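new request in #modeling-help
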Amino acid sequence: MPELPEVETVRRGLLTSLVGETIERVEILRRDSIAFPSPKEFAKLLPGHSFSNISRRGKYLLFELSNEAGLAVHLRMSGRLLLTDQDKGDGKFLRVRLVLNNRQELRFEDMRVFGRLWYVHPRSSFEEVIPTLKTLGVEPLEGLSAQTLRSLFKNRSQSIKSALLNQQIIAGLGNIYADESLFGARIHPLRPANTLTLAEIRGLATEIEKVLSKAIALGGSSLRDYTDSRGVNGNYQNDASVYGRHGQSCRVCGNSIKSLRIVGRRSTFCPICQEG
DNA sequence: GGCTTATCCTGGGCGC
DNA sequence: TGCGCCCAGGATAAGC
């Protein structure tokens, strides 16, 4: 499932090959995938625009288009953006097709149909169309300091795992990298966020940055549905310490990796290394 | 305001 | 073989 490293990998992959290209035609195969405006308007408004830049905020991909219009994409759990030749056969889960002027097309595939696309009018902004963008927390790769984290956790009695998944605190972390960061910092996922010491928070901030940077360098994780914009799998899953390793031996202490449900999400951890 | 829970959605895995 | 159930999880609304 795409988290910050996977979204960033897609962004970097598309940036080199998509900027400068023009959208000629839009085909919507699943109306649910279009969040704004209506699917009919979406297909009518995008053609003629060219891509001028691609940025990222949390797990949102933000495409800046010509004439100051925009296109936003959230991959959610199983979304993929694939840049392919037009004559290549369609995948089973193709939802939206953006046909380009260079015999290629940008395809949005999404098995679970949770992912969404937004068109942003020239006189509007990404934040106006997607109000959630205004509520997103700090970007973990832009200088995540222990002091910042401490103030964010100060009044939070919820578990640290729950806090890390809260996009209003840190933007971009999901289940995989929250579990991996907590393992690296040796913190139990059920510890209330406001009970962490400054030393623990410092360790956690370091681990978050380390885990995310390493995952980006390895092209993300491909534990289930994710590939990059060329359909290539990431490699981080081979390096995961706890995620997806329930019942296996901890790489540090050798004890069995456990899992439990926290706020509806499976959390995987080592009960020995993450005792406190 | 903080926090948890239910909901959306679909394919894969498993048991019978 | 076929059926039914459970699980995975990001964002959001609803409820406490």
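bot summary: The radius of gyration of chain A is 20 Å.
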